[in-house]
Specification:
Blueprint (H helix, E strand, L loop, with lengths): L1 H23 L9 H20 L1 H31 L19 H13 L18 H30 L2 H4 L7 H9 L5 H33 L18 H21 L3 H32 L13 H14 L11 H28 L24
Helix pairs in contact: 1-2, 1-8, 1-9, 1-10, 2-3, 2-8, 2-9, 3-5, 3-7, 3-8, 5-7, 8-9, 10-11, 10-12
Length: about 400
């Protein structure tokens, strides 16, 4: 589920990249046409090449892309603060709850939280890169919690700035331009942010696509080493030390999704379907997070000898309950209920693939399909190397 959500997000980001490039340079390409499709496919090919080059190069590229993306958000915050000093802000809108479906404040906040969760998608991808750390027990939790805190603070400041300067109804109206462009126009009318925004957007979606494809290829590599998928997916390039087969497979899957997403974006019904895919990504990840937190509570009962990060039991319990609640139907509108149908279809495909793998291992390899001991992940396998870059 995690790998599928990552590839889906990256494919959608490729479509967005093509759209931003078209708007930024004024190419005038037709929506859903061959021009945008070629740009999106070319962009994903470039992502694959960076991924193949190595983790170090991918991380450096991500740092640059993140800094550009961060500059755009900080620009919105600072412009918003300037607008506030000029008396253009209305802070009463920050604490006003309005629901078109006449929901209670609690349900309205629940639905908004579920929607906003998609903005935090991506942090779970870093878990698959923990094996690349020199001291993951110490470095990874510190980096993860610091990143979550900084990102959360930035999003809160952007949200407060946006609502204080522009009415919520206008922010949700796509005919009036992107929400961030409206905020900057309200705070600093003379700033040509509508011209700058497409280029910042290009860097932002490129960042999302790269980290998601980086995660998906490493996840496929790990599943191959665990015997859940064919061992060939775990092959590592001799010189670059990257899982090249997994990179090719995930890239080809993304190509298929990109073709669908770009073509579908040309119609209103297709655009709605793309929105449902984004919501389904959040639904699947919330379900995964709930299961992971429950698994954490179970694993706490099994002591281990090696050093590891240990969290409080009540935090894991709260995380499991919260994620399970946000994955419920009460956290979605009537139009969003179709997300459960899409999620069910993806799970059905996963079950079918699991059955095929089980049948192959049983009849051809004459071995049981089961996860190996985690300690064995540090050992080299005869069919594949171990990615260090």
């Amino acid at each position: 589920m995690v790998m599928c959500s990552g590839i889906t997000s990256a494919s959608t980001a490729s479509n967005a990249f093509a759209g931003f490039l078209n708007d930024g340079f004024g190419l005038g390409l037709e929506k859903g046409g061959a021009g945008l499709l070629l740009i999106a496919l070319g962009f994903m090919t470039l992502v694959a090449l960076v991924n193949f080059r190595g983790v170090g190069e991918s991380v450096k590229a991500n740092v640059v892309l993140t800094l550009v993306e961060l500059s755009g958000l900080l620009m919105v915050i600072f412009v918003g603060m300037w607008g506030m000093t000029q008396g253009r802000a209305d802070f009463s809108r920050v604490v006003v709850f309005e629901s078109a479906d006449d929901k209670s404040v609690f349900l309205a906040v629940t639905a908004a939280t579920t929607l906003a969760f998609f903005a935090m998608v991506g942090f779970e991808d870093s878990v698959n890169m923990a094996e690349e750390c020199r001291d993951p027990v110490k470095d990874f939790p510190r980096t993860m919690l610091t990143g979550l805190s900084i990102t959360g603070l930035i999003y809160v400041l952007v949200a407060i700035t946006a609502v204080a300067l522009v009415p919520v109804g206008d922010l949700a109206d796509s005919d009036k331009g992107s929400a961030l462009t409206q905020v900057v126009a309200a705070g600093a009318p003379g700033l040509p942010f509508d011209t700058i925004f497409p280029f910042i957007g290009m860097f932002a979606v490129a960042n999302s696509a790269l980290i998601n494809m980086l995660m998906a290829s490493r996840l496929l590599y790990g599943l191959a080493h665990q015997g859940v998928l064919p061992r060939s997916f775990g092959k590592v390039h001799r010189t670059r030390k990257t899982p090249w087969v997994s990179i090719i497979v995930t890239t080809l899957i993304s190509f298929g999704l990109i073709i669908y997403v770009v073509r579908a974006s040309a119609t209103e019904a297709g655009s709605d379907a793309i929105s449902l895919l984004g919501g389904t990504t959040s639904l699947l990840l919330l379900t995964v997070f709930a299961v992971v937190n429950v698994a954490l509570l179970v694993l706490r009962r099994k002591p281990v000898q090696h050093a590891h990060f240990r969290t409080k039991a009540w935090i894991a319990g709260l995380g499991a309950v919260t994620c399970a609640f946000l994955a419920g139907p009460w956290a979605r509108s009537e139009e969003q209920q179709e997300q459960y149908v899409i999620a069910g279809g993806l799970l059905a495909v996963g079950l079918v693939l699991s059955f095929i793998t089980w049948l192959y291992n049983r009849t051809v390899r004459h071995q049981p399909t089961e996860f190996e001991d985690v300690e064995d992940l540090e050992e080299d396998k005869p069919q594949a190397g171990y990615p260090k870059r």
